[in-house]
Structure formats: C-alpha cells, structure tokens
Amino acid sequence: MFTRSAKFVVVAILLGVLTTVRSFAPQAPLIASVQHPYVPPTTDDDRSPCPALNALANHGYLPHDGRHITHSQLFHGLIDGFGLSYPLATLLTFGGYTLLRQVPPLSLLDISRVNGVEHNCSLAHNDIPWDHEYPRLHVTADVCLLNKLFADSSDQRTLSIEDVARARVRRESSPEYKNANVTLDALHAEIARGEMALVLGIFGDSNEVSLDFLKRFFLNEQLPDNWHPRATQGLVKTARTARKIRAHMDSLRKQ
User: Fold this and answer.
1) Which of 58, 72, 148, 178 is the most buried (most CB within 10 A)?
2) Which Pfam families does the annotation name (predicted)?
C-alpha cells in the first residue's frame, strides 16, 4: 500500500505530466554559442553532481542559479538542450522527482541527496556513506577519477561503449569501493549505465564519443561550440545502448 506522502507525489507527478504536455510547444534548434552562451556558475549558484544538468544551467536552458526549477523548465530544458524525446524527457523529469521524494520545484543541490538520483560508484565523484543525506555541498568532479576514466580510452581519441564498460567494471571492483561503507543497488547501477548511454547517444553516435568533448563536459560542464541536438534521443535508443554497456561489463567480468 502507498503511504499518504507517496500518493501525494504520484498525484502531483500525474498532474505535472498533463500540465507539461499541454503547455509544450516545439522550439527551433538553438545555437548554444549565440542564444545559450556558456556562463560559468558563481559561488552563489547551486549545482548538482550531474554534469548534464549543470551544463543546462550554465547555458541557460535551466535557471542559471540552479534554484526553483519547475517540472516544465526541466522537461523543456532536456528537450531543447539535449534533443530528448517526449517520453524520455517525461521519464527523467518525473522519475527524478519520484526518486528524490519531493514535488516541484527543486534545486540542483537537491540532486545531491544520497540514493535518490545520486549514486555511489560514480565515474566522476568519490563514494560517500549511505547515512549522509547531503554530502556534496561541493559538487565539482574528482580530477583523479576523471583521469582514470579518460585513460580507459582505447585510442585516446574517443570513449567507446567497450571503454565505458571497462571503466564501470574497474570502478565497481576498486578496493576503495569494496572497502567503503557504500552501496550500489540494481536501480542505481542501471542509472549509472543509463547516464553514459545518454552521453554516448546525445554527443556521439551511440557507439563512441569524443574524448576532447568529454574533458570539457566533465571538467567545465560545458556544451560544444555551436551546439544544437543533431537527432532525437529516445527511450528505446538509450535503453539499447545501456544494455550493450551491461553486456560488455558481464563479458569483462567473466574474463
């Protein structure tokens, strides 16, 4: 049975879906360097452990201060900034609110809540104990972890599906992860694979993505120059790439 608070969240999400879909109007492709220039955050702006959401805020697809983000702003930002399909944008928007156990609006800092959207065994952030609710008041990526990710590139030019799988297996089998008081359950393991599936699909060709772009994306949380989504990134496409990552991970673990 649902608790009263859970029922409230479900009702709010359903109402939000109806409101968002009804109010959405397709927009023409936007050129980031002209209409959405890169503006780094100040110390007064909220940011999250998610470089994609931070990039949307840095380019003005979301409020630059990272606060009071409505479901409509997040939904539209994902579509306009990344070219997500309606179903995928809806899933990420309202699935995110559900995992965070709150109703709109939200702050990017809310994404830091442990075991909501945020998860351990990140390719860019250090692990944290499960009993810390908001551990990442400073959400900058860990350079040492990123250098290990970049080093997983087979050709030092791109990061492929196979490279991502290798990075995830390495991270999930690291002594630091195994010895720490942290967890990565099945749901958040799927989220971790899905994150990189989105990066591969939105900014690459679903099979590989430029390493130069990844460095700017993770370190500066910045979109490419003259950026606009080249194609629609859908739910099926993302799930297919995530399954490929998992299959390669399973194969590597058997070796």
Assistant:
1) 58
2) Peroxidase_2 (PF01328)
